Structures are given as C-alpha cells and as structure tokens.
Amino acid sequence: MKKKKKLVKVLGVALMSTMLLSTVAVAGPQSKPNGPYVEVEQNLSLQSFMSNDQLYSKLQQLELRSNGKMKLDIAGYSDAMNGDLMEQSGYPLYVVKFGDADPNKKKVLITSQIHGNEPIGTEAIIELVQTFLSESKEVNEILENVTVWFMPRINPDGAANLYQDKLYPVRYTHQTWDPEEIGLPEGTKAPWNYNLGTERAQANNGQINYGIPGYDENRDYNPNLDFRIEKYVEARDEQKVIDALNDTSYYVKDENGNYITDENGNRVRHTGLNSSDYGGFYVTPEARIVTEVFKELDPDVYFDLHHRGFNTLTAEDDRSVPIQIAAVVADPYVDPFTGKSYEVDDDVLTLGKQINVLGYQSLQKGNSSFGAIQKYPDVNLPGTSLGAFALNDTAIMLIEVKGQSQTLGQKQSGMLTQTVKIPVYEILKGLGDGSVNDINPNLYNDIPVSANGIKDPSVRD
User: Fold this and answer.
1) Greater confidence, 41 or 418?
2) Helix 120-132 vs helix 137-145: angle between axes, to the nearest 10 degrees?
3) Domain positions in the chain
4) 10 Å Cβ neighbour count for 207?
5) What is the C-alpha to C-alpha distance for residues 38 and 216, in angstroms, rounded to an integer?
6) What's residue 28's pLDDT?
7) pTM (2 d.p.)
8) Does domain 18-225+283-454 have CATH number 3.40.630.10?
9) Rounded-to-integer distance, Cα 58 and Cα 51, Å
C-alpha cells in the first residue's frame, strides 16, 4: 500500500447567471446566522488552520513549555504498514498525554480530523492542551482524577492534500489497494470505503479528481480490535478474507434480471460483509495506530471530533445548528470471522448519555445559536472508531461541527472551535469531580433529533 503523491489542478467553476444571482440576492435567510457559506468563485481561505508542520511544531513547543506536565509521543506514521507502525514513511500521528493509563483515574481519549477536511476539532484540541498547561486550581483538580490523551489530526495525509500546488484537504487517507501485496489474489475487491481520489469541489459545486487513492479511515475500524487482514492470510485462512471482500452489497435480482421488491415496493438488498453494516478491515495504518493507543489507554470515555452539513434546529426555530452530538452509533454486533458477540454495556451507555447531556447543557447560553444542538441521526456503524470502541466498553461522544473545508473555509472558525472546546472541557471537569454521575441520562432523549437540513444557497446542482 504505497503512497502516491501527485499534484493536480483545481477545476474552474462556471459563473452563475444574472437571473440566478438575483434570485439568491432576494431570497430570505435560511437560518440565523445564515451560513457561513463559501460562494461559487469565492477564494477559499484556510490560512488560519495549521499545516502539519505548524501543528507538529506547536505540539513540540507546548511540550517544552509544560515542564513535564505534558508528554508528547509519536504513536506511528501514516504510511507505515506490514505490522511496523513506526516505519517512518509518512506523517507522524502524535499523542498528547496528560497522565498515565492509571486504572484509579477516569481515562479519556480524544481524537480529531479522522477526515482530513474536518479541521475544527484539531484547533479545539490545541486550545484545550493550552488550557491544561495552566496551573489553575480547577485544571489541576481535573488532572488529579482524570487522565486525558489527545490525538490531534489522525488523518494527516488527507489534511495536507495538494491540488494544483494548493492546499485542498480531503476526507480520505492516501494509500493504494494492492491485494497481492498482502498475499491475496489479484482482482480481490477493495474494501467498500476505498476511494480512487475524488472529492467534492468547493461550495459543493460538482467533483474534483485529485488522483490519489485512499480510504475513509472512519470505516476501517472493527469491534475485533485485534483483527488484521494479513494475520488471516498468514494463518492460511485467506479464503475467509477473500470471500468477505468479494461479498459486497447489492440489490437482489430474480433469474430474469428484475429487481426483487418487498411488500412496500422497496428493493430487497443483499447486505454483504464488505459493507457499512460490518466492521472494517484495518487496512490503514492510521486506524491501526489509533486502535493501539486505545488499547494502551483503555479509556472510560472516547470523543471523536468531526464536521457535517447544515441544519436549523426545528421547523419553528431557525437557529443554525453549530454541532450535532451522539452517545450511540452501533447496535449489538456479531463478528462474522470469529462468531464473538459485542454489545454496549448498560453502564457504559448510561455514562455516554450523561456526558452528552452535560455537553449539551454547557452550551445553553440564552437563545443564541450556540445552544441550538441536535442529536446526530440514528446510525449503526460498527466500522467507525466510535462504534468499535463503544462495543469495547467505552462511553462515547460524537461531536459534529457544521460545514467542512469545501463549504466553510475558515469562516466562523473561532466560534465553532469554542463550540467544541467548551463541552469537552466541562465534561472533563464533570468526570473529575464526579458531578457527571448526578445527571439524569434520560435527558438525552430530550435533545432535538437531526432534522431540517439546509443547503448552501449558492449551489444549484
């Protein structure tokens, strides 16, 4: 799985017609605030977000400043494979450690930018690290009772992607599927989350082709944390892997080639093992690295920081939703390879709901858009880091910030960074003093559900 780095050119975007522009100009706002949006033909600015080199330099400076309070480790590299995650052939994945894996403390792992075009979580982590380097009484009391490990930017290749000499962060990692390299027959299908190098263009105006293959890292995890594709090959069980990879999802047809439908007229779908309904195949070094850190820490709580689209809160409340959150992203799961069953423990789920409620409550500041928070849609994704880790006895919180690099640029980045930082900090404080345990987990059910999606008004395709 060798990295292929190429420079390709951003496609031009056609000007909107005068009639269309006048329509946008007179249209009423969709939300409060309305946007922000990157308009067609507008220069996209990402200068306020740290490059990989800037991020690494900042982390190293903070460690020097910490006088031993913070420890900075490299957990592996983004293009390392074949079992040696420390092979220095890509970008480093850093772990910022406040405390050891002490079983007598609450332990928390926080990751960001698993998708390279979702940078706000990384900015929030840096601000949280700076906060924890202070010698305030409150911070020290938190760290007496809570170990906190941060992994900022766990997809550094996607974050540093170039398109015609310009920074163009993308969702995917940078590796090439080569089944023969891991002992599988030529022609074995790639995991379903493999991408040949396309991404949506600025302002969602079509697609670009930057030409570097890779994976959606956040579909590469597995509830079986020890699953490694080459282990099955070495153990001469490669046929299990071949069969699974070649078993993709599709709509079922009859012998005449017609789609079979159910009583409601919906097409019947065959759910293959190579699909989002099952765990991933751990083909990316990034997912393996994060999982090794997870196993080392064995956290009580795991946060993963993402971006998403745009919504208003309810049909009656047109406040723009800054974040969506979730405590549940995976149903009970049976590993198709081993037959082992996984499910979220009741106490773990309770804690997950409590931390999500606490985060929700921390942002309720009057009637501002700051507190217009929704729950993420119901999903069952055992191949995500959150899903896999929740099924291994860790309470979770998903935080999804509105907008992505192509639809947001750096607009409102300061406000959105705080919308992530504040709930994470307040939850860490609640874990430290035990107050999180006093929260009624049933309040989680009262958080508004995802609804009222809105689109960038400059986009018409």
Assistant:
1) 418
2) 100
3) 18-225+283-454
4) 10
5) 24
6) 52
7) 0.89
8) yes
9) 10
